[in-house]
Amino acid sequence: MSGSGRLPGIARRMGDIAPFHVMELMARARRLEEAGRDIVHMEVGEPDFPTPPQVAEAATAFIREGRVFYTPALGIPELREAISRFYAERQGVDVPPERIAVTAGSSAALLLALGVLLDPGDELLLPDPGYPCNRHFARALGAVPRPLFVDAENGFQPAPDQVRACWTERTKGLLLASPSNPTGALASPRRIKALAECLAERGGALIADEIYHGLTYGCEARTALALSDEAFVINSFSKYFGMTGWRLGWLVAPPRFMRDIEKLAQNLFISPSAPAQHAALAAFRPDTLALLEARRAEFQARRDYLLPQLRALGFRVAAEPRGAFYLYADCSALAPDSEAFAGRLLQESGVAVTPGLDFGENAPQRHLRFAYTVARDRLEEGVARLARHLGK
Amino acid sequence: MSGSGRLPGIARRMGDIAPFHVMELMARARRLEEAGRDIVHMEVGEPDFPTPPQVAEAATAFIREGRVFYTPALGIPELREAISRFYAERQGVDVPPERIAVTAGSSAALLLALGVLLDPGDELLLPDPGYPCNRHFARALGAVPRPLFVDAENGFQPAPDQVRACWTERTKGLLLASPSNPTGALASPRRIKALAECLAERGGALIADEIYHGLTYGCEARTALALSDEAFVINSFSKYFGMTGWRLGWLVAPPRFMRDIEKLAQNLFISPSAPAQHAALAAFRPDTLALLEARRAEFQARRDYLLPQLRALGFRVAAEPRGAFYLYADCSALAPDSEAFAGRLLQESGVAVTPGLDFGENAPQRHLRFAYTVARDRLEEGVARLARHLGK
After folding, report:
1. CA distance B76 to chain A (A)
2. Which chain A residues are closer than 8 Å to B167 by Cβ?
3. DSSP string, B170-187
4. Which of A88, B138, B217, B258 could be bridged to B145 by S-S, CB 3.0 to 4.6 A?
5. Which among B23, B197, B276 has the least Cβ separation from residue A266?
6. Are A376 and A48 in contact, with CB atoms under 8 Å apart?
7. Residue of A nearest to B111 (CA)
8. Judged by CB atoms within 8 Å, which residues 252-271 of A form the interface with B?
9. Measured between beta carbons, which residues in chain A are less than 8 angstroms from residue B254?
C-alpha cells in the first residue's frame, strides 16, 4: 500500500458547493418507505409520466441495430435540424441548426455556455430563489455567483434595475430562468427584452434557462431567441418531453461562439448519448406532441387543485405561478423554520416537500417548494395529511 | 433585437483549449467519402464492434418499461455492486461499492476527480504524449497542466524521478494512463507503486486512467487500486465493453472524497444515463465477457499483423505496445512533418491516420497514431496503400 505519506487535500471550491438538500430528503423518505411507511412525494422535480412510447420505440429500434457509437460532439445533424424546425413551428423564430449544440442534459449545456463565457474571478448574476445547481457551475469554473433577490414585488424575476445596481467590471452576464424553479414564475417578453438590452449595453451575456418551456398554463413562454440575437438559450428533453433519465438537452448560442462550444464539447463530453439522441428524434412527432399536450393539461389541473388548497391551509402564494410544476409557498404563518417544518412533515405525517434552503439565501426559512409531480389522488392525500398535521 | 450594445467576449480559457484535431481529420475523411472516395480509417479511437447483444437487450428491456427516470447521482446500486464484484473477480481486490461513482463516460469521471482535487492555479502532471482532452479538463477548472515527456527510454510512462523534478508547491498530483493512448504502453505494477509512493510523500494524488484495461495482449494490466489505497481510478464502458455511444464510465476514489464527489455529481450531472446503466448491468455476464474476450483476441491479431508491416515500411515503433488499440509510430525517416504527411496520406492515398499534434508537445511532428479499430482486410488494404504511397 502507499505508505506513510501525506494525504491529498480536497479542493477549496468544494467548501462553496452545497449538497442538493432535496436529495438528502429523498433518501430519508426512501428509508421511511423501506420501513413500511407510505410517503406522499411532493419534493421531486421530475415528471411522473413515463417516457412517451414513441420515444421509447425510437430508442429500441436504434439500439437493436447495435451501432451505438460516438456521435458528432454537437449532436447528430437530424436532431439539430429537428430542434431548429421546432423553434420555427412553435415560436416562429429562425434558429439555424448550426447554432444548436445537443448536450448531455441541460447540465452539460450550462457548463458549455459558462465555460466559454466565464474566467476565474468573473461574476455571474442569478435570480434567488433559483435552481441550486446553477450557481455551482459558476463556482466549478472558478467564477463568482452573485444573487439577485426576486420576490412577489418584482414577479419573482430579476429586473434591469437590479442588473444595473449589481454590475461590476467583472460581471459577465445574467442567468435568467423562465419559467422559474422553484417559483414557476414567467418573465414577460417585455422583461426579457429589457434585460437583454441592459446586458447588451454592458457587453454582458443573457443566458436564458428555458428548460420548463412547454410546461406553461394558459399561455406560451416566449423564447429569448425571439427577443435577442445575442442570447444563449438552454433547454432540455427532461421536463416537457418527459425524458429525464435519458440525460439530453441543448444549447443555442450566438454563431461566433459555436466553434469554441464545439471545442469544449469535444474535450469535455466527446458526444451526447447516442440512444438518447435517436430517441429524441421521435419527440417532435405530432402524435408525441399530442400526448405531451395532454400531460401538460394534467399538470395544469393539478396546479389548479393544489394552489387553492394550500392557500386555504394558511400557505401564502403571492401570484398564481404560470409554469413549471412547482408552488413556492410562504409557510411563515404556520412555522418559523421551513427546514424543521419539512422534517416534521415527513417524519410525522409522511409528506415530503423541499425546504427553501435549496434555492438560495432569499428568506429560505420562510418557504417550502411543493412539486405537483404526482397523480391527483396522491395530491389529495397529501393535502389531507397537511390539514391533519396543521390541526385544520 | 438587442440593439447596438457591446458583445460578450469569449473566456480566456478557450484560447488554451485546442480542438481535437482528429475530429477535423475525420470530417475531411467523411467529405471525401461523400465525394465517392474509399477511405481506410485508422484514425478512430473507437472499437468497430457493435454493442454486445446482451447489453443491447438489457437496455431495450429496461426502456420498454418506460420508467427512464433520474437515478441516484452516483449510479444505481446494482451497477456499483457489479463493478465492485468485477474488481474482486478480475483483480482480486476489494473495492466496496461506496467508493465507486458511476459517471457519464470517463469524461465525467475525470471532471469529478479533478473537480475535488484542483483549485485554480494548481498544477497537474500528465504524460506527454497523452490523451489530448485530459489537459483541457485541468484548464477548464482553472488549473495548469504540466507535461512529463515520456519516450522509448522510460517505456512511454512517467518515472518517479520526473515527478520529483517537476514538483512545485502548487502540484496536486499525476494523471497516469495505462495502457496509454496514443502509445499503448503499460506501466508496470512496480512503476505504479513507486509513483504512488513518490506522490504520497508529497501529499499528491495519483489519478490512474484505466479506460483501456481489458484490452491488453498477453498480459493483464494491474489496477492502481491494488497498489495504493489513495489512488483515484477512472474507467469506462467504452473500450473493452464496446459501449462508446452510451457514455458510461466510473470513478473510484478514496472514501473521504466520496461525499464531495457525490455533491459535485449531483450539481454538475444530476445522474448518469439510466438506459446506459441498465444496459451495463449485462456487461459483466459470463456470456458477454466471453464475447469481449474474443474481441480482445481479434485486436491482438490485428496488432500482430500491423506492427511488423509498419516496421517493414520504415516506421519506427520502439517496443511492442501491449495494450489499447494504437500504434504510435515514428515516421521521421519517411517524412519531416507528420501533420503534412497525414494530410497527404488521406488526400492522395485514402488512408486516415492521426498526426502526433493531438497528443502534446513531445515531438508530435515525428509521430503518427495508427488505430487498429477496423477489420483485418481493411488493415491490409491500408498497408497496401501506404506501401504504394511510399513507393515501396
Report:
1. 12
2. none
3. TEEEEEEESSPTTT-PPP
4. B138
5. B23
6. no
7. A268
8. 254, 256-257, 260, 262-264, 266-271
9. 7
Is residue A189 within 8 angstroms of chain B, CB to CB? no
Task: Name which of A23-37, B15-29, B74-88, B290-304 the model is least confident about.
Answer: B15-29
- CB < 8 Å to B263, chain A: 14, 17-20
Residues of chain B with CATH 3.40.640.10: 54-283
A350-367: pLDDT as tens digits: 999 999 999 999 999 999
Q: In chain B, which residues have their Cβ closer than 8 Å to the Cβ of A268?
A: 107, 111, 133, 136-137, 140
CATH 3.90.1150.10 domain range(s) in chain A: 13-50+287-389
- Contact flag B140-A203 (C-beta cutoff 8 Å): no
B221: left (phi over 0), alpha (psi -120 to 50) or beta: beta
Class of the domain covering B54-283: alpha beta
Spatial separation of the C-alpha atoms in residues B293 and B246, rounded to whole Å: 20
* CB contacts < 8 A (A, B): 300
Q: What is the pLDDT of residue A236?
A: 98
- Hey, which residues 260-319 in chain A have their CB within 8 Å of chain B? 260, 262-264, 266-276
In chain A, residues under CATH classification 3.40.640.10 are 53-284
B247 in A contact zone (CB under 8 Å): yes
Chain B, window 193-222: residues with a beta carbon less than 8 angstroms from a chain A beta carbon: 196-197, 199-205
Give the right CATH number for A53-284 from 3.30.70.270, 3.40.50.2300, 3.40.640.10, 3.30.420.110: 3.40.640.10
State whether residue B210 is helix, strand or coil.
coil
Q: Residue B68 and residue A7: Cβ atoms within 8 Å?
A: no
Q: 3-state DSSP: chain A helix, strand, coil percent, rounded to 5?
A: 45, 15, 40
On chain B, the residues whose CB falls within 8 A of the CB of A70 are 46, 244-245
Contact B227 A257 (CB under 8 A): no
What is the structure's pLDDT at B270? 93
Q: What is the pLDDT of residue B1?
A: 44
User: What CA–CA distances, in Å, run from A163 to A127, A167, A202, B9, B194?
Assistant: 10, 6, 10, 18, 54
Q: Which CATH superfamily groups domain A13-50+287-389?
A: Aspartate Aminotransferase, domain 1 (3.90.1150.10)
pLDDT in tens, A299-308: 999 999 999 9
Burial of A98 (0-12, 13-18, 19+ CB in 10 A): exposed
The mean pLDDT values, 10 residues at a time, for chain A of 392 residues are 68 83 85 96 94 98 95 96 98 98 97 95 96 91 95 94 97 98 97 97 97 97 96 98 98 96 94 98 98 98 98 95 97 97 96 95 96 97 98 92
Q: Bridge partners of B330?
A: B316, B367
Residue B121 CA to residue A12 CA, distance in Å, equals 12
CB A83 within 8 A of CB A97: yes
How near does any CA of chain A get to the CA of B253, in Å? 12
Q: Does B269 contact A18 at a Cβ distance shorter than 8 Å?
A: no
